[in-house]
Amino acid sequence: MTGSTGMGVFVPVCLNAAIGIYLCAAFQQLPSPSLLSRRSPFSSTLSRLRTARFPSSVALSASSTVTDAPPSIAPSAIESSPLPDLEPSKTDAVVEVASIPEHLPSEAGKDYRPLACMLAKQDFKEADQFTRDMLIELAGPGAQMRKYVYFTEVRKIPVTDMATIERLWLHYSNGRFGYSVQKKVWKTCRADFQTFCSKVGWSKMEDGIERLRRWFGENEFMYDLDKAPRGHLPLTNTLRGTTLFKEVLNHPAWDSDVLQEKLF
Amino acid sequence: MSMATLERKTKKPKIQLGNKGESGMFTDSSPESRRVIPPSQDTRAKFKVVYVVLESQYQAALTQACNMINQQQEGVSVECVGYLLEELRDPANVEKFRQDVATANVFLGSLIFVQELAEKVVEVVSPLRENLDAAVVFPSLPEVMRLQKLGSFSMASMGQKKSIIGDFMKKQRMQQGAKFEEDMLKLVRTLPEILKYLPSDKAKDARSFMMSFQYWLGGSPENLSSMLLMLADTYCKGIKGENLVNKADIVAPILLPDKGIWHPVADQIFDRPSAYFEWYDKVHCPAAGIDVETAPTIGILVQKSHINTRDECHYTALIADLEARGARVVTIYSGGLDFSGPLEEFFYLNGYPSVDAVINLTGFALVGGPASQNHEKAVKVLKKLNRPYLCALPLVFQTFEEWKKSELGLHPVQVALQVSLPEIDGAIEPVIFAGREGLTGRNVPMSDRIDLLAERLLKWATLRRKENKDKKLAVTVFSFPPDKGNVGTAAYLDVFGSIQEMLGNLKKDGYDMGEIPESPEALMDAVLHDKEAKYDSPSLNVAYRMPVDEYEKLTPYHRDLEEAWGKAPGNLNSDGQNMLVFGKQFGNVFIGVQPTFGYEGDPMRLLFSKSASPHHGFAAYYTYLEKIFKADAVLHFGTHGSLEFMPGKQVGMSGTCYPDRLINSIPNLYYYAANNPSEATIAKRRSYSATISYLTPPAENAGLYKGLKELSELVKSYQGLRENESRGPSIVNSIVASARQCNLDKDIKDLPADDFDTKELSIDGRDALVGKVYRKLMEIESRLLPCGLHRIGVPPTAAEAVATLVQIATIDRPDDGIKSLPRIIAESVGRDIDEIYANADKGVLDDVDLLYRITEATRAAVGAGVAQSTDSEGRVKEVKPVFEQGMTLLQGMMGQASPWKKALADSGFPNAKEESLSPLFEYLEFCLKQVVADNEMGGLLQGLNGEYILPGPGGDPIRNPGVLPTGKNMHSLDPQAIPTKPAVDVAFKVVDRLLERTKADTGDYPQSVAFTLWGTDNIKTYGESLAQVMALVGVRPVPDAIGRVNKLELIPLEELGRPRVDVVVTCSGIFRDLFINQMALLDRAVKMAAEADEPTEMNFVRAHALQSAKELGLSVRDAATRVFSNAAGSYSANVGLTIENGGWDSEQQLQEQFLSRKSFAFNADKPGEMSHQTDLFKASLKTVDLTFQNLDSSEISLTDVSHYYDSDPTKVVQGLRDDGRKPTSFVADTTTATAQVRTLSETVRLDARTKLLNPKFYEGMMKTGYEGVREITKRLRNTMGWSATSGEVDNFVYEDANDVFIKDEAMRQRLLETNPNSFRDMVTTFLEANGRGYWDTSEENIKLLQELYQDVEDKIEGVKP
Region (Disordered) spans which residues (chain B) (predicted)? Predict the structure, then answer.
């Protein structure tokens, strides 16, 4: 894993637990031997979180949004979107032990340790989903009911929380992923969304036509630090236009001093 | 297992987008991608549902509904597969559909309104209907509705005999409008309540239908799930009566209100605007940072079914974009297809409109949607609201990628339904803002289009809110061909005079104008700076020098232009360092000169300009307007410009199409000639303009002059002396001699030789001879020609008004119970006018004379009517009403004759009946009011105020006075409405006449006829020429159940009574843009004829198709390809351009240009593409022995414009034919009451005599000065075009023209002084005509021309004063 280069000690997750530093798995059952199975612990964490979030009747409609939601065209969703596939996690999953900070500030009272663990584990797909889900929560009850964030709600999200999320992304991606990274790219594109998409790899050429990458069917995004262009993640839904995306890039967090404060 | 996991197992979406490219159709999506199958090893009782819908938004909702059933139900499961209507064009899909229906329990259909596809649905379902447990069809064509099957409930009688629904749909489309849909809704709302209490089975089944319809209208996955379960429980074998369905899941339909105000963030639907604004202004706007006090407000119309099915992402995108820009929105929806009520209810607050601009996102006509429109009702409410009205649309039949790849752009069916029809409501800016995502079928917005729309909407709204003194207006004048003599070209428009008039009006309206020049000449001088300088020299007034870096910074697409033009600045509109913007600013008004295409003189580009882009200078001009001058609106001044013809898709621009990039966010107003609705429509669709129509100058009678006048005097004196044995013959001898001098021997084939003494003829023989000459003279005399140029904002002169009304009076209008004046006069002397016309045609002297007197009397009578309203300046400013109630009656009682009756009596027809005259003159008075009521200036001011510009048809005011008053936002017609029945009748007559004439001349029917189809022609005549093509091949169009022309039937040979004649149809690029569905109809007609099993000697279409099928190795069907046009996004053969520029070596070059540019074939089997088929084009032209065109209006005749010869294939065919014979060329002239078929050379002579050589014409032109000279030169150049493409111009035409314009010293001085550039062109054209061998003349003439050329060149270059 490239993320590891020159970044301290890497140990398997189980060792991690043994050493007793922050346990990523602490939010669920203790990692049993199954931890070494081909299943990502965080998938199930999230499933549980999500199920808990919606009463069962709602869960139904939420899950139907899942399969039939349209976003295959676009980087999807600050929106309740598909549960991650129960795909095999990396067998050699390791976490950068020293890297999970003790203090992850949140004004909204949210817990960002799962995000930190996912990122530390380089599981960008999970982290990406977590981030979008979190933004919906941070955006307030309206967004939660609607299951997507309307652009006007973005400004309600506390700088502290945005900055924490961002700093985690920046840190674990060596500064390649994150909203502030996207903001820099956006500026060089003269605020043209199409140019931006091709720069960050949200679109691709097919039969001589540039099209946005698909989310549904086969997810075409790149959750790999090596392959993905700078600014590729996290994804923001453009299913309802680019206003939300622009508003996210406009969030005061990216220019605030908090972002500069060390988490680690 | 969580629900989510279960789902993943039950539904595994596959990406399967059909066989790309092979189908040649737009819709590449595959029904397989939306098949829902119950989990494997499912033991529940299964039922299967197959649906066909037009509305793709149901796709996702139905899929979800089925998934819900499969997850929730314990006793039943469902398999479901759906077809989008357009997918049934693919035979493979039809086959799959058949297999699916064969094993289905339930069939669902909705909005199946496309005739040929409806037929396919019926063909498949009908034989299988017996086995279906239920078939539920929501509003569709009657034959599909008849598939309905719910127990005892059916609609078998639908559309056949009297039935509720059948009545809604039939005939009275205009009156009933959207009533059908409304009534259905009413029925749905009330019936279930009533039916609930009816015990009988019949009522139960009817109730099931109504419930289903309610569920369907409810549209959400929950509703649809209930509907499917109800149907299964009630009707499906193995399920009904078995108590398998968990009834708890069948819940009553959950319906949103039928109409309301919706907002994505609000947790409710608002039923009153006050309630909405209470929430919006107090809660939402502050949260969104919208300043309620200053924010413009945009009204948005959306479809309820998208809200129901929660497929509203594309709506939310625009709303969010507008709000992010600080605007307020009011979004209203309706469940019905009539938005007029909701609009009136929700877009007003306290009695005042609450919106500044309105956008309709449904893509449908405001009233009636796709079914039956009521445009009058729509216009009424829009006029009352009086706001700019945009109608944008989502892609329905194409995925993004398909549309992006397509050169045609939007699918033709959508163009017909969602572009053409909204235009009739006055909608502008048909921007595609969203599309269907291939896999899920849901609508997703296109971010760049949403941005564009939001920006454009805000600019329109700003026009309403800004004060006039602060508004900036950019007026763009055209210059073509690119020569200074042509700056300010516009068809029939006195451009600088009109601008001058406009500036005065704007000033009055409060615009900051700075110093207005005191006259049109001064204005022109200020813009042109130096009239005599070459156009592209910097001495045109430079308004702005744009440094290259600034240009590149402000023009995001500048790099794309480099492929064709290299790096900026290039050498067009540039001084080598800066981009130059030509024009002149007066206060806040900028008058700019539109740059030219830039490749006019480049033969390679003319041939292959398909992929060319505008040059940097062109782009810089529009960048300047938008980003530096910061225009609030641009006004393109007059027909036509280059912007709307820039490369890009045909309809449905993308962000890479040049018209879209150039105009970008600026609201665009465009003065367009009322007689040119087709090009105006292109301007509307491609450059997002709101057009304002202007009147073309009225046509007057050509009159007679010089030799022709003397000849007519001789003819008149003969009439008194014909019986005088000695003087009679001698006058006839003189008549013969001067007729020959006037070159009439070309037209009168049996004119005796000069040395023949007519004494040898009987008196009848002499009468016949004089009759023929007389007839010819009358033909010339009464030919109409537009005099002078129109000036916007100036009322017509009495003479102009009379000229227009005389023509209106000459047409019978049986629908309105109005007889033509000539008919009334003829009746007053006991004659039938048709007989007089026919006899006059034959040259029967008495009737020629009678016709002459009738014509004179007509003019006198109309003149007497207009005189009532003529003021002291000889103009008609307002119409004095003569027909006020009771007035004529009173006059009649008092024995007072009307002025026209008096005039008729004075002309020798005292017995015309007042009861026939009254309705006619009442009508004429109405027409006169319309002529005077022009709103040309008013329309502009309304547009600039951000108001609604009243829409109206374009076309010929004579045929369709609905064109008047001008100043309207012009539209074309419902393309599916043509050809109309009367047009078909006329067409069959014209074709008979043509075939008779050919048979008489050559003894045979022609094998094949080459045809040219024009957009405007077909709009004006409601599809006459289209129907002519059908007549030739012997196919008749048949209207469908709701009056649209979508079907064809083969006329049996025995009924036709002649062989089927083959055709080669070349469509103008504009025809292709407007009538692609009609191209499909023609192609099907030809193929139908080719595939008819008939003897080849009676079916030339088949004979030729069999032949070329063999030669080219094709199927007969493919070999029967006869409908051609340009490549998508390209227009004209460019032969005209080449000739105008003189840049060509040989006729061969012109012919190759024609063949290469016009050989894109249309194929009804693959309607999504124009394929380059030069071989087939050549093969079919090879057999042509007759070429044919239609002339539809007197103001645009053969030499008035270049496009008639541009597309004339005469010499091309000659070059291709094995025998090298030149085909006979005919022109049908439908401009007069009696449709004439003349040879091309006859028509060219007639045209030359009535225009180029006619003092009335050229003196009239000279009066308007600068532009007038250019007009004269243009006629000469176009005449030479005919020499080049057809060789049908007589030598005397050039010779006489040379006498008039060159030999006459006084004349040539006037020309030279008025417009030296145009005069130089004239001299060049004469020399060219001689050099190319079209004009044989004396050495002396040539020498003079050469000297003149040198003189004028020196003068222009400034060498000589």
Answer: 1-38
Checking ipTM against 0.85, whether it exceeds it is no
Q: What is the dihedral of CA A131, A133, A138, A144, to 10 degrees?
A: 170
A101 to chain B, minimum CA–CA distance in Å? 33
**B1228-1240: pLDDT as tens digits:** 887 766 677 889 9
Q: What is the dihedral of CA B298, B302, B308, B309, to 10 degrees?
A: -110
Inter-chain residue contact A67 with B8, CB threshold 8 Å: yes
Look-up: residue for tokens 């508003």?
A247
- In which band, very low, low, confident or very high, does the pLDDT at B581 lie, cut at 50, 70 and 90? very high
Q: Which residues of chain A are within 8 Å of residue B405 when distances are taken between CB atoms?
A: 207-209
| Whether B401 and A242 lie within 8 Å, measured CB to CB | no
| B323 interfaces chain A, CB cutoff of 8 Å | yes
Contact residues on chain A for B329, CB-CB shorter than 8 A: none
Question: Beta strand B542-547 with B578-586: parallel, antiparallel or unpaired?
Answer: antiparallel
Task: Name the pLDDT band for B993 (thresholds 50, 70, 90).
Answer: confident
Please name the member of B5, B67, B321 whose beta carbon is closest to the beta carbon of A241. Answer: B321
> Tens of pLDDT along B1003-1052?
999 999 999 998 888 888 889 899 999 999 999 998 876 667 888 999 99
Q: Which residues of chain A lie closer than 8 angstroms to B443, CB-CB?
A: 70
Rounded to whole angstroms, the Cα distance separating B548 from B1033 reads 58
Inform me whether the C-beta atom of residue B60 falls under 8 Å from chain A C-beta atoms: yes
The structure tokens listed for B119 are 């037929």
pLDDT in tens, B106-159: 999 998 877 788 999 999 999 999 999 999 998 888 889 889 998 877 776 554
CA distance A72 to chain B (A): 8
Q: Which of A69, A83, A193 sits opposite B4 (nearest CB)?
A: A83
Within its chain, how far is the Cα of A65 from the centroid? Answer: 19
Flag if B13 and A217 touch (Cβ within 8 Å).
Answer: yes
From chain B, the residues in CB contact with A70 under 8 A are: 60, 313, 437, 440, 442-444
Entry pTM = 0.82
- The two three-digit tokens of residue B283, written as one number: 């809660």
DSSP class of residue B852?
Answer: H
- Where residue B1265 falls (left for φ over 0; alpha for ψ -120 to 50; beta otherwise) is left
User: For testing the chain B interface, which of A68, A80, A238, A250 should be mutated: the one with the most B CBs within 10 Å?
Assistant: A68
Strand segments, DSSP code E, in B629-754 are: 633-637, 668-673, 689-694, 699-701
Q: Say if residues B1128 and B649 touch (Cβ distance below 8 Å).
A: yes
